[in-house]
Amino acid sequence: MNAKQVIEDLEKRFPNEPAYIQAVSQVLGSIEDVYNEYPAFEKMNLIERLCIPDRVISFRVTWVDDRGNVQTNMGYRVQHNNVLGPYKGGIRFHESVNLGILKFLAFEQTFKNSLTTLPMGGAKGGSDFSPRGKSNAEVMRFCQAFMSELYRHIGPDEDVPAGDIGVGGREVAYMFGWYKKLTHQWSGVLTGKGLEFGGSLIRPEATGYGNVYFLQNMLSTRGIELAGKTVLVSGSGNVAQYTIEKCLELGAKVVTCSDSDGYIYDPDGITREKLDYIMELKNEERGRIREYAEKYGCKYVGGGAKPWTEKADIALPSATQNEINEEAAKALVANGVIAVSEGANMPTTPEAIKVFQDAKILYSPGKAANAGGVAVSGLEMSQNSERLSWTREEVDQMLHRIMNDIHDNCVKYGTEEDGYINYVKGANIAGFLKVAKAMMAQGIY
Ligand SMILES: NC(=O)C1=CN([C@@H]2O[C@H](COP(=O)(O)OP(=O)(O)OC[C@H]3O[C@@H](n4cnc5c(N)ncnc54)[C@H](O)[C@@H]3O)[C@@H](O)[C@H]2O)C=CC1
Ligand SMILES: O=C(O)CCC(=O)C(=O)O
């Protein structure tokens, strides 16, 4: 494989999908040498088959708003690769959603799911519908209309969606209810369900907790403790909330969080009580993070500003893709950051990654660090199949073990000659090898 050539070809075929090309470029850049050690891969044109999704489903979603107006949105499911298990990955509802973004997310998900050690393929779906500002009734009607199209393409052994940006417990429950209505079947077809109807304990917490467990592993390679460290978090949704919770439990101080309008900086740190307020504000009232600053009298920076210029030891981006650019990365390094671990998917631009790696700080990509969410989704699937529920402690222990295993794999494949652990390389090679070997074994199709 000549990675540069493959990427140029993909750019020509998919000229309007920059996020997808960005994700592919990062992986191919890491695996090129290892790939070329196996001439059989090239003979089977493995790389093209691995980069291009198995299937892309797209459909119109028509629903009626509270004023009786008929609305239309686009719906998609990208089923990227199922050699390791049923397609698995979240659903995103956000106005920015387009096919290129979902293709990048489904591509990443394939490697991430491979890293979890569980039998799951990679997929992602979503719509350009935004739940923001919509009533519960509107969200329910939209979810039902979306599922009316999607249900034909999913199933507990076929494709198991879950949440992502704009899709939390409320949306998963509406989609699950409608799937059941359409198919007359109760099955573990979605994960992230409510605890009363087959959801797993720790699934809401899993992505944030998992990222902090991974961070602890990274810090321990340098003999550093998380306790006492100051942390920047971005976002204030599911991943951010449970990242903050675990940091607090482990004695770190989180001083920022954000939404798409701006960020708050609380030099005293976000306490348990303040985090409860954020959870209520974001999950129930669906308000803006600016209200935190008004309530607690701390700094708020609007205009879509991001928290990366504030001084801290650690940064945990937990909002969205490309939220740390080169300038932000330089500011973080100049302020003495020692570790960056990604709760979000691809939040760091390629230029910014280079800044972190050149500075030899600890830096882990989302496909490794945020894999705890989908890992516990995999555990939810197992519990549904067994018709059993495991305890909080059992699931947390398994999550911990999975994050440790992912870290070990990154160290195994990513340690460079000078001892620096290149987590990007490690995660990409470890995730790739398993998928590639399974593809080779399963023949050409
Ligand atoms: N929910 C999960 O289990 C997993 C989520 N992720 C990733 O974590 C990130 C956050 O997802 P969730 O917390 O689940 O979503 P969420 O919808 O609960 O929260 C998203 C947060 O990001 C902010 N945000 C969204 N778009 C933004 C933008 N353009 N600029 C600034 N802020 C923006 C929102 O205001 C919100 O605070 C995403 O990248 C997602 O793909 C990754 C693994 C699993
Ligand atoms: O839990 C899942 O299946 C999806 C999680 C997800 O979308 C992600 O890892 O980015």
UniProtKB/TrEMBL annotation:
Binding of NAD(+), residues: 207, 238
CDD domains for the chain: NAD_bind_2_Glu_DH
Active site: 124
Family: Belongs to the Glu/Leu/Phe/Val dehydrogenases family.
InterPro entries per UniProt: Aminoacid_DH-like_N_sf (IPR046346), Glu/Leu/Phe/Val/Trp_DH (IPR006095), Glu/Leu/Phe/Val/Trp_DH_C (IPR006096), Glu/Leu/Phe/Val/Trp_DH_dimer (IPR006097), Glu/Leu/Phe/Val_DH_AS (IPR033524), Glu_DH (IPR014362), Glu_Leu_Phe_Val_DH (IPR050724), NAD(P)-bd_dom_sf (IPR036291)
Protein name as annotated: Glutamate dehydrogenase
A Pfam family annotated for this UniProt entry: ELFV_dehydrog
Assembly, per entry: Homohexamer.
NCBIfam families: PRK09414.1, PRK14031.1
Gene Ontology cellular-component terms listed: cytosol
UniProt entry keywords in alphabetical sequence: NAD, Nucleotide-binding, Oxidoreductase
Organism, as annotated: Pseudoprevotella muciniphila
Domain Glutamate/phenylalanine/leucine/valine/L-tryptophan dehydrogenase C-terminal: 200-443
